[in-house]
Amino acid sequence: MENLALSALQLDVNLVHYSVYRYQIVYQKFDETASGEQLARKVAYELQRVNGFAVLTNLGNRSIISLKPISQLVIDLPQMQASLEDDGKLELDCGEEQQQQALQRLVNQDINKAAWKLAQDSQGKLAFKKAASGNTEIFEPSHSARIKARSTYLEAFCSVQLSPEVLADGTVLIGLHLKHSLLAKPDISLQWVIDKRPDWISSINKVRHRYFESGKAPLVAEFLRVEESLKGDSPLPHLGKSLVEYHREKGLLSDEQLTEAASSSLIKVKYGQNEADHVASLVEPMFDFDTLSKIDSVFLNNLAKDLKWSLDDRIKVSAKMVKGLYLPNFNCRLIPVDYQNLKKSCLRYEQMIRFANGAKSSREQDVLRYKAFGDMTRTQVIPLIIGKQNNTERNQRLLCNAYKALGQLTKTELPPLTKFPDPVENANELDARLNKKNPKNAILLIGLTDKSDKVAIRDTAFSYGLATQFMRLDHRSNVYSPSYFNNVAAGVFSKGGGQLCAIDDMQGETDLFIGLDMGGINVRAPGFAFLFLSSGAQLGWQLADKQQGERMQDDALTNLLEKSLKTYLRSSDGVLPRRITLHRDGKFYESIDVIEQFERKNNVKLDVLEVLKSGAPVLYRREQLADCTKKFSNPNVGDALFLTDRELILSTYSGAELGQSWGDKVSVRPLRLRKRYGETSLEVLAQQVLILSRIHGASLYRHPRLPVTTHHADRFATLRQETCIDALSKMDRLCPVYL
After folding, report:
1. CA-CA 20 to 30 A from 478: which of 44, 164, 173, 443?
2. What's the burial of 573, exposed, middle or buried (CB within 10 Å: 0-12/13-18/19+)?
3. pLDDT of 507 strictly over 70
């Protein structure tokens, strides 16, 4: 394991004992609806602004810490008035999470200043900006030489984002995240799209401001619609002025931008849950892959060929782009990571999946060879074609092929495929038909043609308690390969109550896993998936009250834990689980007190593990060739690097699993695991995550990167945002509706 490494550098100083200046915030006027943390962050930003963007941040709700003494101690704004009182010096403790996070923000600010100097010294070869994540991004300001595909409206820039991580021992790692950023060309605004490409408007989902406040990243908004009769200089009653006048007062736009905005179209956008007016010339369209697939699929196909980037190139290019970076306030440089204090490991996963008759494997797709562990419980498979444009004979043949593939998954007799009912055009027609006759204990195998409204159709089926498996009938003919039909069949089998495989040898004592995800942006909806690990069977999903913000309320978390335990007890004849493990998709902002109270009340032990799918530096293997050059390659499945005894980075994929055409041309994205509570060791918790990432239920050829717990919870949360909750509540909780 000596050749395992991270796509990261580290500071050449250790910050375990680092002194800062501390000040207490005294408020004279503030927004009483904002949280203490939000107010302190606002104070910190305003203090930066009036102190020449000094390196400072909040520490909790009432304190400000700074690397140097602050000269301007007063904030006087219409919405906020506050002053600072000197509270002496504080030696930050990297082992204390709040102080560790504050120090990390200070390092991040100094990286931004270092990037400015690096860009100045590069003579135009590099530029920098603050990314939406708040981290610094260094990029080449011209179109990447690697990207041969060109367009009149978009450019691709090579960029590297720097993510600092302060460890408990004072070591500071700087993760290097290299990518190609797709951005509209400087002269391309949403107004250009309205004037030149009006057919694109319906495919534009997000827009980005073409201006920003110093020290902040440009805001991003959801694009809703164009207000045909209004312009930028049109008076708006709720503002008492036009948007041009509003922006002139804000002082962030040039005279040229204001002149252009006056005659530009007014648009509606959405920030979180709040709609707002904006001006089309002041925002740029965001060209993500989904948008490009709709507006310019030919260009996207050409672009995708160039975006493949070998790990070898990634490591070398990212190191080159940050070479010479110097943090002026911390007085330090970047050096190679010292791995002496970082434990390396390779976790085991082979022969952990069980099929019919006790056969074992490490791949879910071996169900085609060994057959499924458990049979379907739904007694009917009903094929149904939906849509206006309909080649009935061809479409029926495609659905029959999916049903035949279903037969490859099991040795037992399948639920019969009923005769084809007459096609229906839309959800209303389906509702009318089901209202007359609702088949019992059935799964619908639905073929979609034309532009059928999948969401409305799914809601209609859910409202009658019917499981659904969709497949599109308008793909190119070469899409309908055996693997395509096998995946559709796997979805039918799992939603029909079948179990493709079981977990054979789970590490640790956990009997019940709970996957928790907070879906949405402002209003968040938790979703759950439960697995009883002696068989790998899902015990069900739960609906929970909507949440405001990223933290689940204490009573909601308590209620969901109680419901989870009750569900388990029904399956175990009342025998308590030895342990419960909660996998949190993202950071666990919830109360540890709730966990402790649940343990005491129910006499059961619980572990809490954060499963972070983004933000971890790339994990890779390196070797030295005979000519003394270095070669870098993707990690193996199970490769893990421990940052501390409570945090590690884990690869659940290998390059080989991605196939010959991709395996050595892209970098595998690892997971970051953080143990937040419990007695089980991090290594055992990581081993469990690895094993749980090998099963999916509806995709035989690609297992999830996440453990199936948070993967299913994430999918459930997404489904819950787009589906009718009343319809969803009528579904069997054992049916994995989100697959």
Report:
1. 443
2. exposed
3. yes
